[in-house]
Fold each of these.
Amino acid sequence: MATSKAAWPPGAAARPSGRAKPRTARGRAQRTVELLAVEYPGDVRELVALQFKGAFQLLVATILSAQTTDERVNLVTPQVFARYPTPADLAGADRGELEELIRSTGFFRSKTTSLIGMARGLVDRFGGEVPASMDDLVTLPGVGRKTANVVLSVALDTPGLPVDTHVGRLTRRLGLTTETDPVKVERDVCALVPPSEWGRLSLRLILHGRRVCVARRPRCEACVLSFFCPSSTLPLR
């Protein structure tokens, strides 16, 4: 769910010196944080591709981003935000009108249910404000841990590590976890990385997973992490 203003291809920016191979999961996590920060510089708001202003808009955009591209969401959200600028406006939305606005994102009926339910939850239980805690966010319709972590880490300056398919795949390949359940992946990786890095690491792993460490044919020859990655297809040195 991200794009970057970083130099491309990987390696275009100066990389930290030293090629010593970390031997532990914690060491691999630390090197991953360091090297991906060079490959994809910037803070969370620069790394995330969804266009938004404030936590409410990001929450709407993230719900819409399920099973579609960030580019598609960014084409739709200006009209959505203009028509429903506040949680109260969205809570009172006409269902048919909202469905038409978001139809091109796919699954528009279930997304409409989630958006209206989420907005009503904000109005009825949180005074129209997006709550800044995981426990509260996941009580809202359409909001799971991944969405909550996106909003926390990007819009609310609160540590959170969203785990999508890219993050899960890369952290397993790097030997940072053996888990497949996103909640367990989150737990394992968060134990290895300082909270201040959780959000940025997630977004950088997503970028790296889209551009280099792709699912079917990982481009190990172009990967800055390949010299210590346990899953690298390159000859060991």
Note: The radius of gyration is 19 Å.
Amino acid sequence: MVTPAWVRMMAEYNAAMNRDLYDAAAALDDTERKRERGAFWGSIHATFSHLLWADTMWMSRIAGWDRPAVGLKQSGKLEDDFATLSRRRAETDAGLSAWAAGVAAAWLEGEISWFSGAIQRDVTRPRALIVTHLFNHQTHHRGQVHALLTQCGQRTGDTDLFILVAA
């Protein structure tokens, strides 16, 4: 069941994992981060960029944040500079945590409507489902980045929720 406490826990986990993955990626040079590696978004950098884009897009729908400046197909190139991408990731994670701190149970019970560019139609879904999707999408692509970083010889530390998030 999606509760306000679950949303806060997932925002905390999201931020912890992003810190660890970005720290590991920072040990690589730009060429290695941007090397095509066969992942869905190609490279470590492009996958990070897509994740930032997706988080910003979902939060524009959920909480009124500004929409990303590019569309889905260009999301892997949202931010070319790794230092800027890292800074924006940290700011986005702080914003997600601040938003999560204010989520109420009654809000989660409502619905959200938007036009989906991915399927080219209007969509209405339960907010709890969309918030679950937001965090699930992050976990999915971070898993890809974790595998790519491991292939590059980088260590990211623990990835287990029960280890990274205090009870």
Note: The two ends are 17 Å apart (CA to CA).
Amino acid sequence: MKWSAPVLAALFVAALVPVTAWSDDDAKHPVAEYRHVLMESLGYHMRASSMIMKGQVDRRTDLLMHAQALHDASKVVTDLFPAETSPDKTKTDSKPEIWTDWKRFVELNKAFEKESARLVEVAKKGDLEAYKAQFAKVGGTCGDCHDAFRVDD
């Protein structure tokens, strides 16, 4: 097989270009994409709970399900931030400070885990006013983490 000069030149240039897993500027690492979807689902559970608490829908028994979903997810959040999903390696809404201040990130997630566990317990009792108060604490933990570690929209 005879190679033409343009083909050989193209192959030579291609060999010099470093190959990366994320050559497209809009590409996300699969774990970063999964993380994004999970975080959005947390937002939807928060929103659905708010609708119930405001009396927009009469589904008070669903508050336990929403609380449990929040708590279950809280247990895996830190696992969804491996080094290969940092902003210098893939497209993400996460600030680099997650990886440079990992200890604080873990502490904030522990607060989310603790407050969401309490939300589950409050939901089991069926006291709407107590649920609202605890829900505000859970929301505060979300806000604390977002303020510190999420890029503003």
Note: The first helix runs from residue 5 to 16.
Amino acid sequence: MIPPQDPSTYFRKGFGLKAEVQDELAEDYDGRLVDLLRSQDYTLTIGDVTIRLAREFGFCYGVERAVEYAYQTRRKFPDRRMVLVGEIIHNPHVNKRLEEMGIEILRADPTGPFDFSSIGPDDVVILPAFGVTIGDFEALRAVGCVLVDTTCGSVLNVWKRVESYARDGFTSLIHGKYYHEETRATASQVGKYPGGHYLVVRDMAEAELVCAFIEGRVGGAEITERFARAVSEAFDPARDLERIGVANQTTMLAQESLAIAERVGASIERARGAEVRARNFRSFDTICSATQERQDAVRELLAEHLDVMVVIGGFNSSNTISLASLCAESVPTYHIETSSAIDPDAGSVHYRPAGIKHSEADRVDWLPSGPVRVGVTAGASTPNNKIGDVVTRILRTRGLEV
């Protein structure tokens, strides 16, 4: 079990240094061009190019809190070695800035544990917005170092839901990516109770396979093989898919999470009856409000006529990937990490095609000729100044300046 928290070495509510770091945060992340767009009903027209910015975009509260807390921590402990367990958020600019501040980023194998052997009791360790697994947390507490916990409140809410499932004998069916830091941390919560189990499904196709097992159309061996890296230890489909509680990684596509929950519940009812479904199935929408708001804002923007959509955020940012997938259903979409992906002189863009895992591509003449309307949005880890930089490069592709 996790030892009691020592208030002198475990911090989760800041150091009271918000005012001291605000100017630095503003200089690093605020964007005047985004402020201009907001003041003009999220619209900027120059020449024959119209930029339409989604009404909800970029940094969410949880990200702002995590980044601010890291800045406060550096200010609080200016002379101490400081280590961040993985990326604080999935944005290359923000993580690079933290490294420039002398914060070391400890990286792990995508499916393996972190190596904490270099960390000593005099070090200060920052936990990222995604949280860490119970095992990693206990290992760090045993070291005795100062821990600064920036885990997002929305993530903590999912943890409580998964913990309650395990306590009541339900297996957690988590819609997420089994290798993602948040999902790994969430899945570990079942370990608080003996016999706690989880299974992670990436999408509706994987959820359908679980439903096929529930309805007797595939055997347990197929489940075991397909989800070998996405289930708890000693997972037994026959035993552990009797009682199911659905949860999700907070940054997944909300409509898919809800559809998966409904599909699994309906499958249990078809196979075992409505009374069994009522007793043995639970589902709660644990998509965070910021993720939902950004997806809703994109849907509102897509209802207009757009020629192109640009989605800004890390290629490993789950919420950004979800936004790009949503946009790609309606309009040519370019998911880019930074403004440098757009080369105005060559008229090209380097992007990640929606729906194609671990793939990147380049395209010339991506911006249509003639009058053009470009939609822009950004994942919850993207600062405003980086959004402004992208808008500037879009305009320069047409030889225009703000």
Note: The mean pLDDT is 94.
